[in-house]
Design brief:
- Helices cover about 65% and strands about 0% of the residues.
- Helix 5 packs antiparallel against helix 6.
- The two termini are about 40 Å apart.
- It folds into 2 domains: about 60 residues, no CATH class; about 40 residues, no CATH class.
- By secondary structure, it is an all-alpha fold.
């Protein structure tokens, strides 16, 4: 680990600066240990992380994809919740149920399915 020289007047400011440097070093080491580079600009500038990604470029894949990432519908019971939603949409499209009624039933079913995880 690289030594960090901190020159400050007040003890409180010094403690804060050292704490931030230690936190940065810990985050950087965690990224390296987990083979995953989380998005944090200050980590990008550490020599340890620069050396790590030079040796193992795949560690940057997830981080580099963040700019293209979009929200995803994902739950523990994804398949069952999606089935309910698809059935509701189909019921509304075919006229078997009013859209509001079909979606309310799908929402109630999803809440029931996921109640253990709330």
């Amino acid at each position: 680990m690289k030594k960090i020289l901190v020159l400050v007047d007040a003890t409180e400011t010094a403690e804060k600066a050292v704490g931030q440097a230690i936190a940065l070093a810990k985050r950087t080491q965690a990224s390296i240990s987990l083979c995953y580079v989380a998005r944090h600009d200050s980590e990008d500038e550490t020599e340890a992380l620069k050396a790590y990604v030079a040796e193992f470029p795949p560690a940057l894949v997830a981080r580099n994809q963040l700019e293209n990432a979009v929200a995803e519908f994902s739950t523990f019971e994804t398949a069952r919740v999606r089935d309910g939603l698809n059935s509701a949409i189909q019921s509304a499209l075919t006229g078997a149920k009013e859209p509001a009624e079909a979606l309310a039933e799908a929402q109630a079913a999803a809440v029931r399915l996921l109640s253990d995880y709330q």
